[in-house]
## 1
Amino acid sequence: MKIHEYQAKQILAKYGVQIPKGEVAETAERAADIAAKIGPRVVLKAQIHAGGRGKGGGIKLANGADEAKKLAKDMIGMKLVTHQTGPEGKIVKRLLVEEALEIARELYIGIVIDRAREAVVIMASTEGGMEIEKVAAEKPELIFKEYINPASGFAGFQARKLGFQLGLTGETHKQAGKFITGLYRAFEGTDASLAEINPLLVTKQGNVLALDAKMNFDDNALARHPEIQAMRDLDEEEPLEVEASKYNLNYIKLDGNVGCMVNGAGLAMATMDIIKYSGGMPANFLDVGGGVSEEAVTNAFKILVSDKDVKAALINIFGGIVRCDLVAGGIVKAAKEIGLKVPMVVRLKGTNMEAGKKILETSGLAFYSADTMKEAAEKVVPLAQPQIKRS
Amino acid sequence: MSILIDEKTRVVVQGITGGEGTFHTQKMVEYGTRVVAGVTPGKGGTTHLGIPVFNTVAEARLKAGANASAIFVPPFFAADAIMESAEAGIEVIVCITEGIPTFDMIKAKAFLRGKTSVLIGPNTPGVISPGKCKIGIMPGPIHAPGKVGIISRSGTLTYEAVDQVTKLGFGQSTAIGIGGDPIVGMKYIDLLKLFKKDKSTAAVIMIGEIGGTAEEEAAAYIKKEFNKPVVGFIAGQTAPPGRRMGHAGAIISGGKGTAKEKMEALERAGVHVAKSPAEIGLKVKEALKKK
């Protein structure tokens, strides 16, 4: 799960990580009030989940409350397009209004899980403000890493070491140590999957603060962090994805026009792949789960066809524990309720496949059937092409 | 022959009295797996499905001679169940549970270091040596005893590959789901080492997916040391970056872990890479012919 910058900073502050003075504004008047309180010089930062806000006009400097009000008026409600939002952009609903600080150095601190080492790793770099992937590719020697021992946990010397590697001394080094320690505690305490401070700011006065903050969380652990769950912003998510998540379905909207519905994540990805291999483009990823119920199938079907981009769909079920007749029942039920809407190729395989096929055949609905994945993909792709007449 | 489990394997089911545990224990017993014990804390001394239930895994090992475990406990308790099994000296631990927090798994894996147990999963359909023993939730009937080893991060996609291999008449020596999570027990290389020594395995299918670097690491090992033909498939060639594709571990992050990178690494290692999931079986046929 992702959260906004201002929410990440709220969490970090609780763990003793220093953040700039600031508050959230949903109106231009509120932005002016905040600027009057903490200004005069403030930074207005659009709160959307995507990165690259600065280049898209989502971060602006204001001198005094009046200018803050004027700028905020334009920013709130604007459609912000960045390299991460896609061309449709995101509507800005809130601004984080923060004190403008005098920058001496911009550094980088990030915490992630290193899958190969099976440990948490803290990464620090002198190259703040750049994308860390770019630094890793171009100047890997400027990234310093500390792996956390899972048994003994984070150790203070690791923070001190990173501070020295970043070239910090004296009081600034001390502050950085506290900062890194707090950041790690926040990461562990919230079951985060990413905590990234880019840039980590050293002010002209030698103070260390989080100028930006990004945190992502382990979805598997959310149930034990209700306070994090409450930070979910449904406006930042694709509406169909939100709908699917209500039924515990994994749905991701993509750019193509061939819809697909599959049981199991690996098979769902493979089904998308074979659609492309056969000359089409998948419209979505939709995994109804390994142990799917008739109800889940019905809901999945509805979500699948409510995507206007879908011109034809492929349902690929490998029944194991899941029975094909149960899945077929769910499909027919949904199709009768809301109509078939687009041509649909169904491939049922495994447990009770014959019974499942029979349910489809006798339903009075015009499903296309296929025995193999290859056949199914080769049937569905032409059906999604507008120029081909459907029979 | 087979790897990890065979007709002598004695299984304890952790969480045997739960819904999932009950259902799949029945299926395993029907398949012929020797389920000798169950564990549900507080229900020790009772029987379930005619199988003795114990309070702890240590007891199940001592009194019923269990040497493998199948874990069907809820996600927040599963890492604990893994550690309990390892502490009790269970040789093969198969954790079916999906949804375990990553931090819990980091700790469980640290706990396993230096122990003799091996872990399969979590978030796996399990392990099967067809005709001998099944520990997991995969459908038994699509499998057939044979000479192809299968290692996969997926569930139903593995069934697809199994089905193709069975239809072509090759069958499987052992099929293992290593799990779809970011942190899992045995990985490709650990299992390739076992398949290398297993005389009944003539070829191996490796089914990977986007995210992480396990496939690339396996490719390096195959190039250097593995002497049997390997067929590879990577799911997620059309997956967008930054999105978790169902499995917790299936995510392209920071431009790393793409299907393309993985397929290229496997090809460089001499693996027969299937571009379409429908070609996995045929690639095995080709690979065995060339040999």
## 2
Amino acid sequence: MKALVFHGEKDVRIEQVSDPSILNPRDAIIKVTRTAICGSDLHLYNGVIPLVKSGDVLGHEFMGEVVELGSGVSNLKIGDRVVVPFTIACGSCFFCQKQLTSLCDNSNPTATTAIRLYGASGSGLFGYSHILGGYAGGQAEYVRVPFADVGPFKVPDGVSDEQALFLSDIFPTGYMAAENCSIEEGDTVAVWGAGPVGLFAIKSAFMLGAGRVISIDDVSERLQMARGIGAETLDFSSENPLVELMDRTGGRGPDSCIDAVGLEAHGSGPGAVYDKVKESMGMVTDRINVLRQAIQTCRKGGTVSIPGVYGGFLDKLNIGAAFGKGLTLKMGQTHVHKYMPMLMDKIAEGEVDPTFLITHRGSLDMAVEAYKTFSKRENGCIKVVMDPRLSPVSGELESNRKEPAHV
Amino acid sequence: MNESIPCQNVSTLERAVSAGLGGFALARYGGRSVFGTVLAAGLLHRAATGHCAVYQALGVDTADPSTPLLERSSVQLSKSIIVDAPPEKLYPFFTEQLSRLASLSPEVLSMELLDSDRSRWTMRTPVGRHAFESKIVEKVENRSVRWESEDERFPHQGEVTLTPGPRGTVVRVAMNYHTPGGPLAAQLSRVTGHEPHEALERTLCNLRSLMEAGELPRSNTHPNSDLTGKEIAR
């Protein structure tokens, strides 16, 4: 089959690799009908996530059609159209029973590596670091899905592939980020990053009752899209978030702050320069400027919610400010399984159409170019969706192409 | 106060060499480089006291010519895991169904039952294959099992206890083994992922997965790129 294969920093290639096969009774093989590039794929692409190996197939946002089932899967049948959570969960352990599926005890075959680094292991993830299992990902024609009796969620008729696709990660991730804020009616929520997760966090914050959402970024197309879904915007290239956020909230600060950026924050100001210099000398793993600003501006008793990915140790983080203001910090990978049914209902009922953020469409053969475009935020690139069934087309990755007739 | 003085474990010749190198480092780098100054101080301290902390951690003693260079010293390890299964389902893994336990450990290459209490194990170690015999010396049904091995290269004792609780059974394995190099060697081999602690942890995680999820997670499915690594022509 054809797949997008990682070979090193900023080196991904489309290659022929062997087809996946059923290894365990609870496995399924999915023929991918839509796959996307996630912001966290860029962390892998930029080489900041450890233990991603040459030869790894990337991609953790995908959906498709069931083509093969293990003997232990009875709730799916061949031909079912399903969307697959990026977190792999057994469904039966202590954490899965609490719906904390991204913390599953039994889906990471390389758990001991994670235990050494973090004290305990999260769930296995598709197309990610070998710290979390090193499972082959979904930017491919076919994917092996473990625990398929628990993960893949059937897509109802009337919901298109593109509408369902983002339930695999970014929609639930944005939703959980907002839910973690315990939003009360009329709250003001500040969201750093107007990429896909930030945009879904904005949408979800409004769904949960926020009165105002302030979106912070420096890419004009992204800020424009944030305005399009009702957010106020703050361009950090011309305005200082530390000053501006206080100014816009009567000096109190936002009720909650969402860091939808994570460890590769660029930002501006002395903090950002400090991180960049230390990172270039290999003295720091994570650039945390957004987290500093979120903690500094959040109102007393508020919540800082962190859907953005972090990997290691922080430097110059003012935990005293978080303590002094009695902040709540919430974070972690998304418990996708928990949110999928409820969010699928909202899509089916027409309350949300997640396709609003798709800016680029193409075949899987366009993936290499798409990684470059997305990574540089060129051509207004916010979200790339690929259909591995499409034959390679000559020319550019198409921007805002209409959804093909077949779903 | 004698206990607080570390015992000498460096030979007279080595102390003289340390004194020379320390003096040189002090003259060359002293006060100019933090690392150089610390190095000089360390070497001079080693020369003056005849004690080396690294040697101590490795179980090495060059001061006493009667001891072997790398003395075997004892390493203790223990690991607990909660498994959502009753003790009755777990106990057989450590008694009559040792082959099931062996299948959960990637380090075990083969296991042969010699009689009801004795078994022969072949393990993968950082220095190659190693076979040894193990004997169950005490068992309390559904509660605990103790075993021993008088093996020359890897002498060890171990005990597993099964304690039922509201969230499942706490499986605790405690082991005591002797290895050249002692605790520091154990730490170093831990980096390679072959150290007994890591092997034990992996085995217990696998036991939990088998009992709770019915199968072991497997991800060796990154379909390696074909050997040519040829990109598909657009």
